[in-house]
Design a protein that fits this description.
The protein is an alpha/beta fold. The chain has helices at 15-26, 46-56, 71-81, 100-110, 146-154, 169-172, 184-195, 215-218, 222-229, 239-253, 258-274, 276-284, 291-306, and strands at 5-11, 33-39, 60-64, 86-89, 95-96, 114-118, 121-125, 130-134, 166-168, 197-200, 206-210.
């Protein structure tokens, strides 16, 4: 008989925080779960760390690929390997408090309309020092209409930390999961919001580690970040236009009534207005010189003003 819940841990060269992360999962006061680790061909000590835990705890299974297929492939592989009612991704550098799974399950068991239960995020730095707590406002993606929920997701300014909450597996597999492009976690959250409500716990039981080796800090330009999602990608991408297109595709492909699909499509109009600078930048850098260089200087000025 399979466990009620699956925690999927995708990892590539994550030796620095991996042991602490695994320990935080195994110390949960909710016991009916399996931890599946998918190693994307790591070249550091990740393999030995994972095999050690798999040998000590029957709840842990370890699967290693022959090479790095990219983050999108690795994240989605775990969903397809899962055979449980609930599923959550566990990043190799984050952690969860002992009651995280219990509290998330409690919400999902009590509310049939909820597809995703998550906790506010306690942000820490690379040394574990507390930076602060980030939470969504009351009512975020939680309501009877798809329009309200999708609008909440698309207008959020957080780092999509709720994607590491607990999700109904039956609803997750209706989505296109994580795509091989920057921002695909936001597309996934918008898809889930079309399918049901999100519920935020009161306590910050999720520990989100912000350190210099995170993918979002390694690549200044999102054109380069695509290599984290798909290392063998050779496509020249326009990230913001790709994100717009993928949102539209998602809304059209979801198994929901056409009127619900239309709500998501219409919401992309104000989204495009809010992201007009990024959309314009994508167009500018594709033009002949000296337009790309001028666009980069303008982008850098906006970033300096925003700090």
């Amino acid at each position: 008989m399979s466990a009620r819940l699956t925690v999927g841990l995708p990892v590539y060269n994550g030796e620095t925080y991996l042991a602490d992360t695994i320990e935080s999962v195994l110390r949960q006061d909710y016991d009916d779960f399996t931890l599946i680790i998918s190693d994307n061909g790591s070249t550091d000590s990740t393999e030995s760390i994972c095999r050690c835990y798999a040998a000590q705890d029957a709840r842990v299974s370890y699967h290693r690929s022959d090479r790095n297929h990219g983050a999108a492939w690795n994240y989605n592989r775990l969903v397809r390997m899962a055979d449980s009612k609930y599923f959550r991704w566990q990043a190799a550098d984050d952690a969860i408090r002992p009651s995280f799974l219990t509290e998330c399950v409690r919400v999902l068991e009590a509310r049939d309309d909820v597809v995703l239960s998550y906790a506010p995020a306690e942000y820490v730095n690379g040394d574990g020092e507390r930076l602060g707590v980030v939470r969504h406002p009351d009512g975020y993606a939680d309501g009877p209409t798809a329009g309200h929920r999708v609008r909440s997701v698309l207008r959020s300014n957080t780092h999509c930390f709720e994607v590491f909450g607990l999700i109904r597996h039956s609803e997750l597999v209706k989505t296109r999961l994580i795509g091989p492009y920057p921002g695909s976690d936001l597309v996934l959250l918008a898809e889930l919001a079309m399918l049901g409500s999100f519920a935020q716990l009161s306590e910050p039981l999720f520990i989100h580690r912000m350190h210099e080796h995170r993918s979002v800090f390694q690549y200044e330009d999102r054109r380069e970040l695509v290599r984290w999602y798909q290392p063998d990608s050779t496509r020249l991408t326009a990230p913001q236009w790709r994100l717009l297109w993928e949102h539209l595709r998602s809304f059209r492909n979801l198994p929901v009534p056409m009127r619900v699909q239309a709500v998501g499509v219409m919401e992309m109009v104000p989204w495009s207005v809010r992201h007009r600078n990024q959309l314009a930048y994508d167009l500018a850098v594709a033009m002949p010189s000296p337009v790309p260089e001028l666009a980069r200087k303008a982008r850098d000025r906006r970033r300096r003003r925003g700090k």
